[in-house]
Amino acid sequence: MHGKAQQDTARIRSYADRVMVRVNLDTNIENYTFYEGEEGNQKETVLSINNKIKTSVSIDYRIISATLSFTPKFISWNKYNPLKGNSSYTDFTFRFFPKRFIQTLYYKNVKGFYIENMQDILPGWQKDKDAYIQFPDLRVQTFGGSTAYALNKDFSVKSIYTQGEWQTKSKGSWTPFLDYDYTIFSNTIEGQKSKETQFNIGANMGYFYNWVIAEKVNIAPYVALGFGGKFSSFRDTLTDGSKGAKENTQFVTVKFASGLHVGYNTDHFLFGGKLNFNANAYNQEENYTVENSNYFGLIYVGYRFAPPKVVKSNYDKLQKKIPIL
Questions:
Q1: 103 with 15: CB under 8 angstroms?
Q2: Contacts with 179 (C-beta within 8 Å, 6 or more apart), sequence order
Q3: CA distance 164 to 143
């Protein structure tokens, strides 16, 4: 109980001394929207993946949270669709919560896209009858992270991110954060390979509010806005197997995020739901804009229990070597 006694305050109840296992189901929709042409007369192309339901399993203990996400095929909405093709999605996320900091690291792998708005591109195209244009070999790999800091010491960031704590009194906090990622786009069309790498970095300001409407129920909205830079490098593989000329470009990006969390909490059992929206956009060239949006609803169920002795003893040994843990 030592960890809990150290961190409990009149406004925050900590569960750092317990292991928490949580299962999430969410409607993961990963898409990229391309706008071409002058404003008012733009042509839109939307690339999307076929998988619609993502399952995540999270394990939390002390200040560490680890999550594995995937799209199981036994869910009917994730099965192979001959009109849209096959898609796959996997990501690993680690979060660390030293005091008021939130450090996130993740890896995401998405493969298999199709053009979602075929009715805007091909006249006479019929939904549920005609096939979508598919890019089965289009793959997006992302290595990324973010570093955030809650300015209000009485605000629990873990209660929002992982439910590792419980806010007992309503509080809000401005939270500045940096996000960064290295993304690899690769594709093969008619035997010709292409590859683009991007490095993104952004500075953001968000506001989170945790409204405790009852002893065990909270509602937590947030909104964030940021600006950053995108540094891109593209190279084709030519038909003779040689590499084409490398093209390097830089862009200014605009980012927006918002969401709402509703949760129910007891010392052992917890459940809730979230709605989130993330979008960023940049002008790739004159009259040509790229927008990446991700929006989803999430339902989670979790349970907390005393850690097995082997988990506690190994963590204590690690903490002696790395005091910040």
A1: no
A2: 144, 145, 146, 200, 201, 202, 204, 226, 228, 255
A3: 25
The whole-angstrom separation of Cα 141 and Cα 91 is: 10
What pTM was estimated for this model as a whole? 0.84
Amino acid at 107: Y
11 dihedral zone (left: phi>0; alpha: psi -120 to 50; beta)? alpha
Beta bridge partners, 176, equal 205
- Output the six-digit token pair for 170: 């309503």
- Please state, in angstroms and rounded to a whole number, the distance separating the CA atoms of residues 155 and 159: 9
State how far the alpha carbon of 189 is from the alpha carbons of 91, 194, 214, in Å. 26, 8, 56
Q: Work out the end-to-end distance of the chain between its first and last CA atoms, rounded to an integer number of angstroms.
A: 16
| CA 141 remoteness from chain centre | 13
Spatial contact of 141 and 109, defined as CB atoms under 8 Å apart: yes
Q: What is the pLDDT of residues 233-268, one digit of tens each?
A: 887 666 666 666 778 888 888 999 999 999 999 999
